[in-house]
Amino acid sequence: MQAIKMEKPGSYDVLKVVDIDMPIAKTGELLIEVKATAVNRTDIVTRENKNLTAPYPILGVEIAGVVIENHSQDQRFQPGAKVCGLVNHGGYANYAVIPSERAMLIPENLDFEEAAGLPEVFLTAYQTLYWLGELKENETVLIHAGASGVGTAAIQLAKQLTNAKVIVTAGSQEKLDFCLRLGADYGINYRTEDFAKEVLAKTDGQGADVILDFVGASYWDQNLASIGTDGRWVLIGTLGGTMIEQINLRDLMQKRISLKGTLLTPRSDAYKAKLTNEFMEKVFPYFMDKKIKPIIDTVFPLTDVQHAHQYMENNQNIGKLILKMY
């Protein structure tokens, strides 16, 4: 089969199409003919990780495709069933294996490209908003990188599930306009505006109840000013750096802030399975009713993977970048 492998850690040009053996599904797993996968920031982080040693993993943490073999007891996933879900690497390939407990039957109104843009961003958004952020009905959430894959998923979930007041940041008016059309209440251009001042102005000085932070260090002071008393601050990315020179812990204590850091990819199989099952129960009806949808920016052929990675690194996308296999 064809797959994308790294020659070595480095820039996007280390990604090459290679021929390798098909994976073998074990007990409890499904063998999937992959029709589409997606590019995620975690793929770029893995690709650039100079601590990795050969043999390097096949990138790709989410897939959509057709069941070829079912080695589990779950009768929903008979050969021919259309599924999507999270994998532990291996998505950039013609075939992949996935634990049956992490597979989701694709809603009939989604094609493979749309379904490939569902697992990572929607499960991340659901986890951070509700399991970690504990977002409640009518609360205010500040979502950074609002036009990203997770951002566009989080906007929809926050509005549909809990009717939250949604404030987003993005770096262009085009991205902000898209977020507003998707359901966000307010958009802030972080390049031209002080988002902390704007958040306080839009919340009558109360601040946000929940912050989804993809940026990290460079946003520390503004996030601290933006969050309200008893606020929940969920750190899910460090695009703006990892080191902060000085932190006054009393600032966190005075507002009674809960600061939580998370990464979904390294979570245990059991955690991902529980998250997947709850997500299917509580959110899939919204996909069926077309009230929530994956946002797809561009679909690339698998052989154009270098361009897809470069596109994401340049922050050009609104929503997901998909790699198709056919």
TrEMBL record:
<dbReference type="InterPro" id="IPR013149">
    <property type="entry name" value="ADH-like_C"/>
</dbReference>
<dbReference type="Pfam" id="PF00107">
    <property type="entry name" value="ADH_zinc_N"/>
</dbReference>
<feature type="domain" description="Enoyl reductase (ER)">
    <location>
        <begin position="10"/>
        <end position="323"/>
    </location>
</feature>
<keyword id="KW-0560">Oxidoreductase</keyword>
<dbReference type="InterPro" id="IPR036291">
    <property type="entry name" value="NAD(P)-bd_dom_sf"/>
</dbReference>
<dbReference type="GO" id="GO:0016651">
    <property type="term" value="F:oxidoreductase activity, acting on NAD(P)H"/>
</dbReference>
<keyword id="KW-0521">NADP</keyword>
<dbReference type="Pfam" id="PF08240">
    <property type="entry name" value="ADH_N"/>
</dbReference>
<dbReference type="InterPro" id="IPR014189">
    <property type="entry name" value="Quinone_OxRdtase_PIG3"/>
</dbReference>
<dbReference type="InterPro" id="IPR020843">
    <property type="entry name" value="ER"/>
</dbReference>
<dbReference type="InterPro" id="IPR013154">
    <property type="entry name" value="ADH-like_N"/>
</dbReference>
<dbReference type="InterPro" id="IPR011032">
    <property type="entry name" value="GroES-like_sf"/>
</dbReference>
<dbReference type="GO" id="GO:0070402">
    <property type="term" value="F:NADPH binding"/>
</dbReference>
<protein>
    <submittedName>
        <fullName>Quinone oxidoreductase PIG3</fullName>
        <ecNumber>1.-.-.-</ecNumber>
    </submittedName>
</protein>
